[in-house]
Amino acid sequence: MDPKLIKDCVHCGFCLPTCPTYVLWGEEMDSPRGRIHLMKQHTEGTPVTPQMAGHFDACLGCMACVTACPSGVQYDRLIEQTRAEVERVHVRDPLERAVRGIVFSLFPYPRRLRALRPGIGLAERMAPFLERVHPSLGAMAALAPPVAPRRQRLPRRVRARGPRRAVVGMLTGCVQGEFFPQVNAATARVLALEGCEVVIPPGQGCCGALSVHSGREDQARRFARRTIRTFERAGVTTVVVNAAGCGSSMKEYGELLAGQPDWAARARAIRTVDLAEWLAELGPAATRHPLPLTVAYHDACHLAHAQGIRAQPRALLSAIPGLSVREVPEAAICCGSAGTYNIFQPDAARELGERKARSVASTGAEVLVSANPGCTMQIASAVGRAGGSIRVAHTAEILDASLRGVSLRDVSP
After folding, report:
1. How far apart, in whole angstroms, are the C-alpha atoms of residue 93 and residue 377?
2. DSSP character at residue 180
3. What is the maximum alpha-carbon separation in the chain?
4. Three-state DSSP class for 241?
5. CA angle (83, 59, 240) in 5-degree steps
6. Looking at residue 156, what is its pLDDT?
């Protein structure tokens, strides 16, 4: 925990109405400035107690406070430093350690996720039993999305349609690649239709996002170095990412690997861009066909707050003829997904998810557009618990349908 960064906070309170846990509980120690106060106590010699660790664990890391702060407090860096410190010095309950061990030995590994696909339906039916064993296990089972009827294999290279305008790499991701393969397929098609040659290196692994957001720095660095090597070998210097959390973490590789200057330099030599960010920068080339839909756009926290990407997705969607974009009330409040938060803090996540589901329902939209797989699972689950249903699609899927002149139903589920 950097004392200089801690001192930047003047405890003004502008962060309070944007902090999901403070909005839920009204507890000062569960606000950004309250947690910064606890960080200060620790730097001055107070040990990390179970109560202190609990307040840090309850933070979603959504970065809404970073957007709201008039003093430029780098809470994003502070909470990641703090979580790493908690993992180093705090001894967790044996059952909690076991559950965390399961999560971090499973989710960052695509092949292991792939092995679970056939049993996802059974896991969903067993969710009540698993919840009695441990709430996190029940949450993990309940959040699992329906399995796609067949696994989609992407080629190593997708040629540009029409004149080639750029060559880019594409991150396939862990959860995105295994649970939402149609999003990756749509992303590759959209990039190709916009004149990009898309390089998709085989054998990709986790980018490290889940690990770094949970204080597991060593694991995150291993994944970061492997990701850098993967795209270096593929010969690309720009990598397009379609998952908000992954893009946010990859953009911070230089800081994550700061203790290894050679790796930090190699990280900075590869430019990471979000799909919407890249398409807005590139400009349209392909024809947009009408898509008569009313959609609600959901701001994923690590896209809007961490990367500052808000206007680009809305502009891309609004440029589609016949498509109407509606805003979700309380857009800045996190849906409760936050990487692994909805697994480790299921009660708070459930309450935030239900709050977001009500906000989405109030728009009357036919489709919810989300740019992060965790948000997609979280909101779809919350809508289902409320007895409703709404299709959740990625920005790439909407663009893909418009550029190819097909209905959204024809984009592979």
Report:
1. 28
2. -
3. 63
4. strand
5. 80
6. 95
Check the CA dihedral 8-10-12-16 and report its sign. positive
Least Cα distance to 313 among 371, 391, 387, 375 occurs for 371
Q: Please state the length of the chain.
A: 413
- What pTM was computed for the model? 0.90
pLDDT along the chain (413 residues), means of 10: 90 94 95 96 94 95 94 94 93 88 85 71 66 75 66 88 96 89 95 98 91 92 96 96 96 95 96 98 96 95 95 97 96 92 92 95 94 92 87 95 88 56
Between the alpha carbon of residue 343 and those of residues 77, 134, 340, the distances in Å are 23, 10, 5
Q: State the Cα–Cα distance between residues 267 and 252, nearest whole angstrom.
A: 9
Q: Count of H helices and E strands in the chain? A: 25, 9
- The two three-digit tokens of residue 94, written as one number: 């044996």
Vertex 175 angle, CA 174 and 177, to 5°: 65
How many Cα atoms within 13 Å fall on the side-chain side of residue 217?
17
- Report the candidate in 312, 307, 176 with the shortest Cα–Cα distance to residue 250: 307
In whole angstroms, what separates CA 235 from the centre of its chain? 26
CA distance 296 to 314: 10
Closest CA to 253 of 222, 293, 276, 282: 222
3 three-state secondary structure: helix
Q: Residue 166 is encoded by which pair of tokens?
A: 């750029």
